[in-house]
Amino acid sequence: MSDTVPDLPQHARERLEGLRDTSRRGGIFTSDFSVNEFLMVGEAGFEPLGLVVGSCIYHTGIQYAGWAKNQEMAVLSQAMYEARELAMTRMEQEAQSLSADGVVGVRLEVKRMDWDKDILEFLAIGTAIAHSKGHPGFKGPAGKPFTSDLSGQDLWMLLQSGYRPLALVMGSCVYHVAHQGMFQSLGNVGRNVEMPLFTQAMYDARELAMERMQQEAKEAGAEGVVAVQLHEGSHNWQPHVIEFFAIGTAVKPIEDTAIIPERLIPQIVIPVND
């Protein structure tokens, strides 16, 4: 096992010491793979090392919005993004300590703490994997393990298509949706009618989240983002405040077929520049 990352808690270091180390074939592996995922990850040329986890308890700041105004809650948007990044970074540190090539099946969860409505727990968890032949070509940006929310089956299919995962990319936007005035509300009673103010608010907030996710993918050097998901949640904030969260796996074409098991190579089409 490589040098332990100093920031990891003592119990995390002890747990990681008992996991598989590809350099000396010691320890056991742990994973949240189903049996099918376990088999397909192996078919893709990888072996599981262990579950890796990152956690962050975060106090969100206070921001007020005009009662009748659509606007982003920038303080909360930044808080939600930074807290997820902290959890992700700590999960990546655990993966690095295992000399992993990547982390798959990543889940990002947010839970409000009962003792304070402004305190949220952010959890990142996934299974660290290593290329069975020790090929370095699967690393993500800056030589760190790649991260992905793809399942074992999806990883196998992605490699077959000639692409590899780079990083889990995300974008967040917390938005205040304006309230309607009393007379406008009364005017809508009993009618089928679009609510343009609400429509525009929801549209704008989703677009901001998507745009930020796309920007992360560009900075990672990706060609595209697969398995994109859009989540909405209020996290028990005040009425009319909602978070839009976009997440997906940034990918790029495989340039070196040596990193792929031979049984998959005939099905891969490598882009050729004219």
Strand content: 25-35%
* Strands in their spatial order, largest beta sheet: 1-4-3-5
> What do the pLDDT scores average to?
83
Named CATH topology: Translation Initiation Factor IF3
CATH superfamily: Hypothetical protein apc22750. Chain B
Number of strands: 8
Query: What is the C-level CATH assignment?
Result: Alpha Beta
Query: Class by helix and strand content?
Result: alpha+beta
Treating each run of at least 4 consecutive H or I residues as one helix, how many helices?
Answer: 6
What is the general shape? globular
Helix content: 25-40%
Low-pLDDT stretches are 1-6
Provide the succession of SSEs.
HHEEHEEEHEHHEE
The N- and C-terminal alpha carbons lie at a distance of 44 Å
> How many distinct folded domains?
1
> What's the Cα radius of gyration?
22 Å
Task: Label the CATH architecture.
Answer: 2-Layer Sandwich
Question: Can you offer a commentary on this structure?
Answer:
By secondary structure, the chain is an alpha+beta fold. The protein has a single domain (10-254), classed as Hypothetical protein apc22750. Chain B (Translation Initiation Factor IF3). Helix content is 29%, strand content 29%. It is built from six helices and eight strands; from the N terminus they run ααββαβββαβααββ. α2 runs parallel beside α4. The radius of gyration is 22 Å and the shape is globular. The termini are far apart.
